[in-house]
Amino acid sequence: MANIRDLRQRITSVSNIQKITGAMEMVATTKLRRFQGHTVAAQPYTHNIEEMVRKLAGAVASNPEAAGDAAPLFAPGSSEAPAALLAIGSDRGLCGAYNSNIQRCLDERIDALKAEGRAYKLYVVGRKAIDHATRSGHPVAAYLDQLNLERITFMEAASVSAMLVAAFRAGEISTVEIAFTKFRSMVKYDPQVASFLPITPPAGDGPRVGDALLEPSGPQVLGRLIPRYLETSVYHAMLEAITSEYASRRFAMKNATDAAGDMKKEITRVYNRARQAKITSEISEIVSGAEAL
Fold it and tell me: pTM score, two decimals?
């Protein structure tokens, strides 16, 4: 039979853990609601601007002059340059399988690039992501340690977009993809790798040059639209990632709290049986002693 004092200490320890995980669950729930509101509110704008730009990519392909200075962003990069991946992970753990899932998705994409004989390099956001890249021996072009996804601003995301665009224009990288976790719902968030550069038309027939009417002119419109589209894509990917992280953390802490509650009940049952056995033993000893007298 387990020692009663040890069982009491275990009940206290599990209760303390349950309080901690319960508090972390409440914090994660509060932050999740805030980030979810921002992400859901931005989704229509992000979807519409992406749809517009990708449809125009078909027209630009047949008439590059219509895009003006933005035309190189629609064309394939140098085949000799490595592919670039912007990997967005978490700064902290205790969020279930969130980090391992996005790391697995990233590794699968890297394996595909290796199978094609293509070189690659990473631009990394998040301590967990850089730890994985270091362990795996992936070449890291930049670790953006100054970024805090919980306080990310559009201007910070725009600076990341500008860095990637500058490298693409300079021929340092041939393509850019973003590895992040897309938020679907409170219980569903999917790791994925999305294309960023070059800008490609959607599947199927895109608009012909005559179908796209741009006023005041193509170069003027696309010159302002394309940078904003790319900045929005990076910013929204980061919003999706931090929202998914807190959804995963809330779920993980809820499971931990529930598991601690179940463990506490089981230990309490064992403790009660041990205490009852001790009381019964003591009563038996008293009765035996009385009879001996």
Answer: 0.85
